[in-house]
Amino acid sequence: MLLLSVAVATVALAVPGGHCSPPKEISIGHCPDYFPKQDFVLSSYLGLWYEHQRFDNGFEMGLDCAKAEYTDLGDGFFELHNSGRKEGDLFAESFAVGYELAPGHIVADFEGHDPVNYFVLDTDYETFAAVYNCVQLGEVMYEYAWMFTRQTSVSEDLIAKIRQVFVENGVDVNLFQVTNQGPDCVYIP
User: Fold this and answer.
1) Is residue 147 within 8 Å of residue 51, measured between CB atoms?
2) Do 158 and 126 touch, CB atoms closer than 8 A?
3) Cα–Cα distance between 63 and 95 in angstroms, integer?
4) Are 146 and 166 in contact (CB under 8 A)?
5) pLDDT per position as a tens digit, 70-127
6) Residue 10 to residue 5: CA distance in whole angstroms
7) pTM of the model
């Protein structure tokens, strides 16, 4: 329980206007057994993805109009450019250099931070990508999940398909929050 209290306090301090209730990404329990896409093709995954839904997380708090763009750097490396709009029409962006460690297992190195691991559970490369990570620290698990789409507006059938990918991997889809990608969005080029 002490570990959870320390983790919650750390997150509260790290988030502007920090609060004492934990974000939904942190909970007591064990990470599910999840399986990245074994026939993942990085070159087909490159390009622009819009964040349709995500689990709450401190580093995207208050962010909408979020997108991720992957650009080939050659020799198996890519640049990742994440961006989105914060309150007051301010913008946030971050850059990383990444690579595929194993099929569907992506590592992104953001300057000044430890490398980030995430797993592409499934993608058809043309319309959707289901991305997840869960870190287990004792009895506490930190979950991160994103539903990415190639278009800002998608059908309910596609969302149901993406949700099913997470369900099949033991992920609680009730934790997803919709990311605004409405007509008022302005994107950083």
Assistant:
1) yes
2) no
3) 16
4) no
5) 999 999 999 999 999 988 778 999 999 999 999 999 999 998 889 999 999 999 999 9
6) 9
7) 0.85
Contact 91, 188 (CB under 8 A): yes
Both tokens of 79, joined, read 């640049």
Cα separation, 54 vs 162, whole angstroms: 12
The CA distance from 165 to 28, in Å, is 23
CA distance 8 to 24: 11
Q: Is the pLDDT of residue 19 over 80?
A: no
Torsional sign, CA 151, 48, 54, 30: positive
Please write down the HEC assignment for all residues of the chain. CHHHHHHHHHHHHHCCCCCCCCCCCEEECCCCCCCCCCCCCHHHHCEEEEEEEEECCHHHCCCEEEEEEEEEEECCEEEEEEEEEEHHHEEEEEEEEEEEEECCEEEEEECCCCCEEEEEEEECCCCEEEEEEEEEECCEEEEEEEEEECCCCCCHHHHHHHHHHHHHCCCCHHHEEECCCCCCCCCCC
Q: 4: closest CA among 107, 127, 136, 96?
A: 136
Nearest to 100 by CA among 31, 166, 37: 37
